[in-house]
Amino acid sequence: MTQQATVGELAPAISRQEIRRLQRRNRLENLGRTWYKFSRNPLSIVGAGTVLLVTLLTIFAPWVTPYPEHVRPFTDFPNASLPPSLTYLFGTDEIGRDILSRVIFGYRDAILMGIVVLGIVVPVGVLLGLIAGYYHGTWIDTAIMRITDIFLAVPPLILALAIASVLEPNLFNAMLAVTLMWWPWYTRLVYGLASAMRTEFFVSSAETVGASTFHILVREMLPNMISPLFTKMSLDMGWVIIIGSMLSYVGLGVEPPKPSLGTMVASGAKFLPDQWWISVFPALGIVVIVLGFNLLGDGLRDMFAAEGV
Amino acid sequence: MSEAPLLEIKDLSVEFKIYGGVLKVLDGVNFHVHTGEKVGLVGETGCGKTTTMKSILRILPMPPARIPSGQILFKGQDLLRMKDQQMRKVRGRGISMIFQDPTAALNPVFTIGQQLTPVIQSSLRNEDRPSRAELRQRAIAPLREVALADPERLLRSYPIQLSGGMRQRVCIGMALATNPELLIADEPGTSLDVTIQDQVLRLLHDLVEKKRTSVILITHTLGVVRQMADRVYVMYAGNMVEVAPTRKLFQNPLHPYTQGLMEAVPKLTGGGVAHGIPGRIPDYLNPPTGCRFHTRCPHVMEVCRQQKPPFFKVEEDHQVACFLYEPKEPKR
Amino acid sequence: MSEDILVVRDLKKHFLIGYAGRIRREPITVKAVDGVSFSVRQGETYGLVGESGSGKSTIAYMTVGMYQPTTGSMQFRGQNLFANGFNRPSSLRKEIQIVFQDPGSSLNPRRTIRQILELPLRIHQPEADPLEEVIRLLDMVELPPEYLHKYPQMLSGGEKQIVAVARALATHPSLVILDEPTSALDVSVQGKIINLLLRLQREFQLTYLFITHDLSLMRNVASRVAIMYLGKVCEVAEAAEFFANPQHPYTRMLLSSIPVVSEAEAAARPEKIISTGEIPSPVDLPSGCSFHTRCHRVMDICRHVDPAMVEIAPAHIARCHLFEQPPEILAQYRGELIDLEAVRPAP
């Protein structure tokens, strides 16, 4: 086949460039429509903005924080327990460390945990759910779903605590614990969607034409699940952060002196109400990021909502 | 019929706000129904017939939808300007509606009885407070009227236990239980099998004759309206384009769209399949100027592109919105 | 005389949907297709008519490989379609394709037209340039290349169905099943699709199995018509004969119930038979002839013995006790035998 600029002799001559141009135009139009749906509710934009801001902060943490050395072993007793001021925007804690810097670095671990946990849980859970749902009614379905049920039967927080307490308290093990208890939720969600979707005509059409099972699961069915999946993932980021904070609050998370929002809230609690800033600002930090993800999730749900008057 | 119509829609326009602009769906719709009349409304998908009906009952989702102009007069009162409380009284008692898909219209988690009794209750006067048992008895009457066997057992059944035809009959029973003056039937037989559709339509016909209920029968199937209606409106892209008594419309369709539709229906007597009407329904974001049908009309003239045709009276009861029928002034 | 491209023999499909009773645990089956035999000639349009529960869609799905039959056989050009169960060989798959009823759900809303049409091409023609083939397919169905990157929601119902037709023809099949291809569409669009299908049939010598409940449409499309009720075939005839001289009571009932738009058509219909009663559930089929509960010509034998298909005129068969049955059928009946001559309907 010679390198042709035009495609097909029988078809009306249309160049490959023209086709690419059409494709670009369609993509832009779709993007515009998607943004319109997302931006209907101003709160969604607030959520998106918050998440974006926090993400940028965590990426550029070493350069953005005023006192990056405070996250390493550091003491400065003359400046301990200072209330919020222009030098220390969130005040200092009982050994003189700047709370603002520690909160920003604390975000790092929180977001990292979210990304790592979801990064494992989502592919594994979704894949299992797709397979179980597509083979609904067979032994494959039974095998996968019964294992899922076992994991779901254990109260999630207890499971996380159990695992984390057996292992050393550090970030890695906290993530491991949360991962192990989280994946079944995605399997459940996708299982329900897949078992309903497998009888749709577009799936039958792919089957009758001879498409591989992989193609049907990943290229035909999965794209139709983007809406509930993305919404859930966005809300889950908030949840993982909370669970991670809870684990560190009870001492099973990140080891000191590394900053973790949960640990900071815990250790600062004993200074309430006089040196309130030691505990309150980290707590607010958690609230802000979780709220941000929740609002973003609402926006995503609106964005993927079916069109139609 | 010189008396005032039971329902009159005057110059109704309805718009929807969406991404990219405003959908001008209804563009000055005029329509009326007299007491005891059965009026058919024929139009294809997207012509605005369901929007028109929802406007009458004011069940359009009002944030995207807007009604910039028009009146809907029911017994002389403008429904669009009524307060919510007054409107609620009209719905169900004055005007009732049957929807296209009876499966979707009935709540699957409640029994028929649980869905029928509130309807009956809403039509009672304040002084009338029947006991539970009495209410159940009253609920049996509508079911008997729609020729459903064993109504007591039906009251205790769930919609899923009934066949499609039975569900549609229950919906008809519910709609007529309050003795409304006007019944709007939106594609009442479309989701049913032909033989069952035939039964249901006959039933509907007999019931409304008996009760002297006025009916607006909405459908995209010409054959149905030929059997059931006294007078027919043909609708295209948010406008009424032709109105005539049923017989006249079928024997002598005047508007090019109506002619196209009649031709497009495959005939039982053979003759092949016509090519249908070329083109698509217009984009409501940017509807065509002038007559909305002109882009697909085989008889299009220059004036059609510029002006919207009003209704021209070809006969006393047969009107067409088409410049082909403009009475010619003698030139000089 | 063209050969038979599809031969169906005593096909049955029973779905097991549960068990009745706590102790005996009798299986409850839906007899969707209950002993169907017919043959389709190369190049013809064979029409299957019936209401819900008739089994016509189930036959379509078995032909294209979505279901496996319970018993019976289906041969395509002499090859057994179900020899390998669900793993139908690719060479056989590409020969038989289907256009589904609902264009809204037969195209994946998350895939572009290009992706939808490329799929069959990538599977069955891996060496060819898919883009070129797709544009050629679009051109064949008179859609411009601008449609390549649109999503199905941006298309009208008619256009979606046209894409479904293009997809079915992508593998150059010989037999195309059309399951109610225009039922979900407006009548003004229907003509375009049907004429497209007829043109493509002439151009590529396709054989169609055309399924619809719209008898007026069938009259103008099919060369032969078979009418089904509750899983069995009731009557088969060449199209003109079928509509001019319907014999089975169900055919006559159905024809007399359809809405028509002209006096001429109304006159062409059989005399009005008011249909009574509901269509029985396929789980609980009536005894004997399954139509007897609604038949206006019902006799006592109909309640006890299922009639066999008999020839009542050249190329015109019907399954009804009104017509002379073979002795082994009559032998099953213990009641009084009626003089059938006396009750046979006038020609």
Give a structural overview.
The complex is a heterotrimer of chains A (309), B (332) and C (347). Chain A starts with 15 loop residues before the first helix and ends in a 6-residue tail after the last helix. Helix content of chain A is 69%, strand content 0%. Chain A contains twelve helices and no strands. Chain B has helices at 49-57, 84-93, 102-105, 112-122, 132-145, 151-155, 164-177, 194-211, 222-228, 246-251, 256-264, 302-306; strands at residues 7-18, 21-33, 38-42, 65-74, 77-78, 95-98, 182-186, 214-219, 231-236, 239-245, 312-315, 318-320. In chain B, the strands form two sheets. Chain B has an eight-stranded mixed beta sheet, with helices on both faces. Chain B is globular, with a radius of gyration of 21 Å. In chain C, a hairpin with a 2-residue loop joins strand 11 (309-313) and strand 12 (316-319).
Quick recap of the structure?
Chain A has 309 residues and is mainly α. Chain A has 12 helices and no strands. The two termini of chain B are 38 Å apart.
List the helices and strands and how they pair.
The complex is a heterotrimer of chains A (309), B (332) and C (347).
Chain A (H helix, E strand, L loop, with lengths): L15 H24 L2 H18 L1 H4 L34 H36 L4 H15 L2 H11 L4 H27 L3 H9 L3 H9 L4 H24 L11 H9 L7 H27 L6
Helix pairs in contact in A: 1-12, 2-4, 2-12, 4-5, 4-7, 4-10, 4-12, 5-7, 6-7, 7-10, 8-9, 10-11, 10-12, 11-12
Chain B lengths: L6 E12 L2 E13 L4 E5 L6 H9 L7 E10 L2 E2 L5 H10 L1 E4 L3 H4 L6 H11 L9 H14 L5 H5 L8 H14 L4 E5 L7 H18 L2 E6 L2 H7 L2 E6 L2 E7 H6 L4 H9 L37 H5 L5 E4 L2 E3 L12
Helix pairs in contact in B: 4-5, 4-7, 5-7, 7-8
Chain C lengths: L3 E17 L5 E16 L3 E6 L5 H8 L7 E6 L2 E2 L9 H4 L2 E4 L3 H4 L6 H12 L5 H11 L16 H13 L5 E5 L7 H18 L2 E6 L2 H7 L2 E6 L2 E7 H6 L4 H9 L5 H6 L40 E5 L2 E4 L7 H4 L9 H4 L4
Parallel strand pairs in C: 3-8, 3-9, 6-7, 7-8
Antiparallel strand pairs in C: 1-2, 1-4, 4-5, 9-10, 10-12, 11-12
Helix pairs in contact in C: 4-5, 6-7
